[in-house]
Every structure is written in C-alpha cells, then in structure tokens.
Specification:
transmembrane; globular; 9 helices; 2 strands; membrane; transmembrane helix; mainly alpha; two-stranded antiparallel sheet
Amino acid sequence: MKKNSVRHLTISALLVAMGIIIPMVMPRITIGPASFTLASHVPVFLAMFFSPGVAIAVSLGTGFGFFLSATPIIALRALSHLFFAVIGAFYLQKHPTIVLTKSKFVLFNGRFQLFNFVIGLIHSAAELAVVSVFYTMGNMPETYYSQGYMYSIFLLMGIGGLIHSLIDYNIAYFVANALSKQFDIPVFSQAKKIEKAKVTILPQETETVA
C-alpha cells in the first residue's frame, strides 16, 4: 500500500511538471484573439488513467503552478480542470473496459470517444465559465471585446476549447496505451484483466453447452 502511494505521488509530481512545461515549449495554434497549445491538457488526461487521487493532485498542482508562472485567468482555467478530471477518473475506475474494443486498443473506439466528448463538454464549460467572469469584469484584452462575446468567448474559447480537449484526450489515450505495454497503467491493466477473464469464461461455457 505504501509502495503504491509513493508510486502515485511520484507519477503525480512528474505529470504536474509536464503540465507546467508543455505550454512553454509546445507549438501554439493562434486564432485571434485566442490561442491553443497542442497537448497542454495531456498530463491531466493521463492522470485520469491512474486514479481519482492522481487526477486531483495533477489538476491542483498544475493550477497552483500556473499561479506562480502565469496570469490569474490561466491559473483559474487550469484549476477548473479539477471538475472533469475527478468525474472522468471515477468513471474510468468503474468502467475501465471503455478503453478497449474486443480486448484491443482501437483509436476510433466509439465508447471511449463518446466519453471523450462528454468530458470535453464539461472541460470547455468550466473554462468558459471562468473566462466569462473575467470578460464580464472587463479584465480581458481589448481584442476580445472588439470581436464580441459570441465570437471571441463562446465560439473560440467554448467550441474551440471543446475541439482542443478532444484532440488532447486522444493524444493521452494513445500515449497511455503505448505505456501500458511496459508499465502498469491501472485503467488499462484492469480493462485487460476483465477482457481476459471474459475470453477464459466463454470457452468453458461453450464446452458446458456442448
């Protein structure tokens, strides 16, 4: 138990560090006045494949880390990730098999992509709420006001944020699957265990019927 806790603490620390560093080094797609950093959410999404505790630690760690290195709005947007991270991590813990299709990893997995979409909606809604508060208070750059709320906030930050979330979670999904072949990624390990048990039981049932 203690060994597992230390492992999760170490993983959380590494993912927090990645979550702070990635926005500094990864390429950005700018659609004025908003910008989107590729893979910036991947560490939080990866944390969800480990446990709710790791997801909470990484969400809080990256959020507070940005309070020291970025603007308050960026830090609060990062902290808002706590909502989707906790919900998603608990769901994955209860339904790990959605990461596999017929015992195999498939990128175009309908069940996982539906889960990804729901998480994306929660993700973008939480960030949209944070940005909307700052917009209402008049604390956004002038370019956001010149473009208007519907375009600069709802369309770019809301819809654009949803698309950004979907892309990043698929990157995390691919990375987690690759790592699960060499390391214990709890959700993937549990999913494989359940699928293997199904494959073992089915032949026995067939023999009984015969």
